[in-house]
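Protein data:
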Amino acid sequence: MIVDAQIHVWKASTPDRPWPADAIEPQRRIPLEVPEVARLMDEAGVSGALLLGPTWEGSRNDYTLAAAAAEPTRFGAICRYATGDPAEVEKLAHWRDVPGRYGIRMSLNRGDVDGAVEAAAASGFWAAAQRFGVPLSIYAPGRYALYEQLARQYPSLRITVDHAAVESANVALVDAVRPLLALAKYPGIAVKASALPCFVREQYPFPSISEAVYRLVDAFGAHRVFFGSDLSRLPIPYGQLVDVFVNHTPRLGDDDRAAVLGGALRDWIGWRD
């Protein structure tokens, strides 16, 4: 069973469902909606996926949660959240009451990142997420000290490092993931091996992706490394990426490969459907 750790889905901006006035440019002109995702998953042999609303749509979770409710064995949701609002933080006690809601995404790659981190601390968000067992997916490329700080302060908090903390192809992928390996000593940190074709300049079957996966698995163990596509910006056919993980990782044993391809993610977030 292959489960994709991250796919953005969204709808067009309309008067009834407008995007924020300061929305950034979307990754593609035509919105990536759930029916298209389902078709592409079928073609690639992917059984399930965690869906995430993109930043340009604002802090919306209605579309992803509706998909998870409609097909709970196929879709789960990672949600945007008002992490700096103490009133919203109090509601984390009831996080698991909403079916299909498996985690919170924090995008800490633009804007006042330090301010957002401090606001989340002041609101009690980090402590509440740890207390109530809410997994976090954090994209903070290059901010290894931040991940380490959180892991030390909140040792029971489950944090997934999105896209292996990589942001560009300026550094060879095998070298780009190397600083992340030091965080493997913290059991609360896992890695999303997602969007990796965006960070290479080679052709299929992308040997540096396989090598990067080996290094991540060697450091974190297969139980803390999760396959993901970030499908809306994937520069190659979805099936090619799946094939890289399935057929071009010979140094992984069958059990480790099955874990990376979905078993480990499901265990990490408690997806039992």
About this structure: The first helix runs from residue 34 to 44. The CA atoms of residues 81 and 104 lie 7 Å apart. The beta strands are 3-8, 48-52, 75-79, 101-107, 136-139, 159-161, 189-194, 225-228. The chain has a mean pLDDT of 96.
